[in-house]
Amino acid sequence: MCCALYKALPMENIALSIVLLLLLLFLLMASVTQEKNLHIVHLGEHLDHKTPEEIEDIHHSYLLSVKENEDDAKSSLIYSYKKISGFAALLNPHEAHKLSEMENVTSVFQSHGRKISLQTTRSWEFSGLHEPTQGNADNDNLWLKSRYGENVIIGVIDSGVWPESKSFNDDGMEPIPLTWNGICQSGDAFNSSNCNRKIIGARYYHKGAEAVLGHPVNRTIDFLSPRDAHGHGTHTASTAAGRRVDNASSVGGFALGVATGGAPLGRLAIYKACWLSLDCSEADVLAAFDDAIADGVHIISISMNDYNQLPYASSCITVGAFHAVRNGIAVACSAGNYGPTPSTVRNEAPWTVTVGAASVDRIFAAPVLLGNNITIPGQTLTSYKLKRKLYPLVSADQVINPGVDKNLTRECSDGSLSPKKAKGKIILCFAETGDTWEKGKEVKRAGGYGLIIASNKVEGNTLSITIDDHVLPATAVDYTNGLHIMKYIQSATRAKAYIVPAKTVLGAKPAPIPYVYSSRGPSTISPDILKPDITAPGMHILAAWKEGSPLGLDADVEKYRIITGTSMASPHVAGALALLKAVHPDWSPSALRSALMTSATLINNEGNPITDHTDALATPFVLGSGFFNPTKAVDPGLVYDASHTDYLIFLCSIGEYNLTGSFKCPENPPSPGNLNYPSVAIPELKGTVTVLRTVTNVGCRGALYVSSVQSPQWFTVKITPAVLYFGREREKKNFTVTVKMNSSFVGKIKKGQYGFGRLKWSDGVHDVVSPLAVSVA
């Protein structure tokens, strides 16, 4: 019947229906393709001479040229950056493309939401900073030399701050520096009274994240203000510049001692750009950089990174840091937590200080006593304790529910354990996949009395494993010891065990050990720059934490927490940079970084070379220049300095023109390896390569430096000249590093394989050390 009716329709009606259908499809497709997304537009022209109003008018004019009307242009502008040359706006693909083709527009890229990457009682002491003893002037004490970082302003771009923490009290601090241009922005549970002479400014940024995700801040779990609902920002801020707090510890009394930041009298400026409900948006992060520059900070600490390794012009952190360094602000960035896989390092631009994480000489020992009287070393942060007796011990695969995937029988995954079989026992679980804290919840759900977590194969020995604060008595052992416990369970008729209550132990050896998940080099974006730059404390770091939530501001929760990651290492370096800046206020960001890098240590507390989690020698792609030593860095002897123009020329040399703006690149730019960096990386060496370096004398006049080289395996290195004499302070001297492959190894080494070495200049007082990394073509 339908077919007959269809045939009866006039042909012109059929044709009209087809036309209308095609038109509808076209309109639907057009609406999809014209969907507006948040974009960051980077301009080549710097507008420093313009007022903020004039800059916004210029940005509006760009938008007006691609929008249909003035109202659309105005409503689409999300941020008008003042110190960073550009703006953030809602654009459809056609508009973004048109803007990208305009003169003075160097790049247009879409802004996405980014999750924050969780990337200090003992750490500063382990790093060589000590309180001066009473009655002792101690002229070499860096805290005294720097007046504890007094009046150096550290900008922290993170998840906000909990201002009531004792770490942010301003007792005895001087008035706020007259150079400060920032504000204390009010919002949920935060007003101007929450700022003081320690936290001198606070702002928050959410427009970018809201534009990307299409919904506002969830104010039931987050504060629409600089107040921290996460804890991460409070932790990093107090690590960089927290006040001295006696008797600080985490829940359970772990790490009890004096908590302090690196620059206890430094000032803090808080820039909240990350949210529990919205993650982080590139546009918001860039706005935070923009304000930090305008506000007058001296140092920026940013403990976040892009998930993907992006070209420089497409990374908000790289772009923001580029403009910060142009304005004389040193930027400390976390290297990322994507190790131990090679080439996972993030924030690898040469104008940033890229920081890896390592342990200190403190552990939280909770050994396992087996029924055969063998003791297995373990660590934990749980405060729960077992009654002192032996308990039945089983492995997870012995107490699983029917139907669990055979590949997950040892995992203690959610819902996998049988309460009937697990009740009253200590369970051995392997941490090949999943969150170890969740495994503790599963054991408790099933009625288990205790948990032994055997780390995965990657994490290495007991001193380098990740530990948690579990919901029941628990400890973590390394993978090898996990197999030993499994063997005991399988061989014993009735296996038993006891988890000894945890205690804080100082003086653990060896230390430092690089954090297993700290991201490794080489850089995929610019392999001619050796990254990371340096390593600092980042494992099991105690620092201030949030003390409530929007639903309970005075909740009885931990005021200090122990967490791990490169996020904890970066603010250590920011604090150290602040101390150096206090002593040397005229030093450039690159000089400050050079001082830290060339003075770093390569020796652990056993007097041996630092090794990684597998007990192998830690390479520069793991350690960077070494583990930081702020006290030595204040008097480095020589520095490798670099200007903004040097960075522009470097960008020309790698063909990254989206950040060079109106700068005219040399017709034949030098090799990117010639950037004046405190390390040398030569990827895929062919024949002989020579790179140029320049050192500046920041020590005494009349200094004579002699070079020495530990050549990378398979290569020979020559320094010319081999001796440098400095007749005056601030004198500069050039030298070259020539590298070639030993003829006996030609054709025998795998392509891309790296050899590592060291270059040292010494005057008998200062050792100025740089790592070398060379690979085979």
TrEMBL record:
<dbReference type="InterPro" id="IPR034197">
    <property type="entry name" value="Peptidases_S8_3"/>
</dbReference>
<feature type="domain" description="Peptidase S8/S53">
    <location>
        <begin position="149"/>
        <end position="604"/>
    </location>
</feature>
<dbReference type="GO" id="GO:0004252">
    <property type="term" value="F:serine-type endopeptidase activity"/>
</dbReference>
<dbReference type="Pfam" id="PF17766">
    <property type="entry name" value="fn3_6"/>
</dbReference>
<dbReference type="InterPro" id="IPR023828">
    <property type="entry name" value="Peptidase_S8_Ser-AS"/>
</dbReference>
<dbReference type="Pfam" id="PF05922">
    <property type="entry name" value="Inhibitor_I9"/>
</dbReference>
<feature type="active site" description="Charge relay system">
    <location>
        <position position="567"/>
    </location>
</feature>
<dbReference type="InterPro" id="IPR041469">
    <property type="entry name" value="Subtilisin-like_FN3"/>
</dbReference>
<feature type="domain" description="Subtilisin-like protease fibronectin type-III">
    <location>
        <begin position="674"/>
        <end position="774"/>
    </location>
</feature>
<feature type="signal peptide">
    <location>
        <begin position="1"/>
        <end position="34"/>
    </location>
</feature>
<dbReference type="InterPro" id="IPR036852">
    <property type="entry name" value="Peptidase_S8/S53_dom_sf"/>
</dbReference>
<comment type="similarity">
    <text>Belongs to the peptidase S8 family.</text>
</comment>
<keyword id="KW-0645">Protease</keyword>
<protein>
    <submittedName>
        <fullName>Subtilase family protein</fullName>
    </submittedName>
</protein>
<dbReference type="GO" id="GO:0006508">
    <property type="term" value="P:proteolysis"/>
</dbReference>
<dbReference type="InterPro" id="IPR037045">
    <property type="entry name" value="S8pro/Inhibitor_I9_sf"/>
</dbReference>
<keyword id="KW-0720">Serine protease</keyword>
<keyword id="KW-0378">Hydrolase</keyword>
<dbReference type="InterPro" id="IPR010259">
    <property type="entry name" value="S8pro/Inhibitor_I9"/>
</dbReference>
<dbReference type="InterPro" id="IPR003137">
    <property type="entry name" value="PA_domain"/>
</dbReference>
<feature type="domain" description="Inhibitor I9">
    <location>
        <begin position="39"/>
        <end position="116"/>
    </location>
</feature>
<feature type="domain" description="PA">
    <location>
        <begin position="410"/>
        <end position="484"/>
    </location>
</feature>
<feature type="active site" description="Charge relay system">
    <location>
        <position position="232"/>
    </location>
</feature>
<keyword id="KW-0732">Signal</keyword>
<dbReference type="InterPro" id="IPR000209">
    <property type="entry name" value="Peptidase_S8/S53_dom"/>
</dbReference>
<feature type="active site" description="Charge relay system">
    <location>
        <position position="158"/>
    </location>
</feature>
<dbReference type="Pfam" id="PF02225">
    <property type="entry name" value="PA"/>
</dbReference>
<dbReference type="Pfam" id="PF00082">
    <property type="entry name" value="Peptidase_S8"/>
</dbReference>
<dbReference type="InterPro" id="IPR015500">
    <property type="entry name" value="Peptidase_S8_subtilisin-rel"/>
</dbReference>
<dbReference type="InterPro" id="IPR045051">
    <property type="entry name" value="SBT"/>
</dbReference>
